[in-house]
Design a protein that fits this description.
Jelly Rolls, six-stranded mixed sheet, mainly beta, five-stranded antiparallel sheet
């Protein structure tokens, strides 16, 4: 009887130790975020294309439209943040509300204005132009996996049936470039 109790206590002890060791390991690792995982480029920049994001649209309240990515940051530091939009009007982007970018504890909120216009850009078809807007800069302290979220009324569903002539501006991407001193 003692031998059976000893074996039983030993098995329970081993199972408790094994389960505790499993809890110490992180539940998620960088490879588990395969969906929408974006890797930082060798030059340190990060390009987040809306068409490759997990998007949420609200036809009633488009100011809450959201795009999200999982980004692997391999080089931390300060980044300049640029928005790229497809627009017909190169004088007014017509964002109805401010654009909000969230990266970990960093938040940028801005009403986009046109800083650069690109003609004959491969990312957009005529009659659209690509317009870039400077959003600001942010500091990412550590390397690792980050959830990046942008909220804007110009994140439009990729629904070809709802594409009307009144759609003058569409958000294309968010680009983070390393800030150089």
């Amino acid at each position: 009887m003692r031998r059976v109790n000893f074996v039983l206590v030993l098995l329970i002890g081993i199972s408790i130790l094994y389960s505790c060791n499993q809890e110490d390991k992180p539940k998620t690792d960088m490879n588990s975020f395969a969906v929408n995982k974006v890797l930082q480029q060798s030059d340190g920049s990060i390009e987040l294309q809306v068409k490759k994001a997990e998007c949420y649209s609200d036809k009633v309240n488009p100011s809450s439209n959201t795009a999200e990515w999982n980004v692997v940051v391999s080089k931390s530091g300060r980044f300049n943040v640029w928005l790229s939009s497809a627009t017909i009007d190169t004088t007014n982007l017509e964002f109805d509300s401010k654009v909000l970018l969230s990266v970990h504890d960093n938040r940028l909120e801005v009403q986009p204005v046109i800083n650069k216009v690109f003609k004959n850009c491969s990312e957009v078809d005529y009659p659209y132009f690509r317009a870039d807007s400077f959003m600001g800069s942010l500091y990412i302290q550590d390397t690792g996996l980050y959830a990046v979220q942008i909220i804007s009324d110009r994140i439009l569903p990729d629904d070809k049936t709802s594409n009307s002539g009144s759609e003058k501006t569409r958000l294309l991407s968010v680009v983070l470039t390393p800030a150089v001193r």
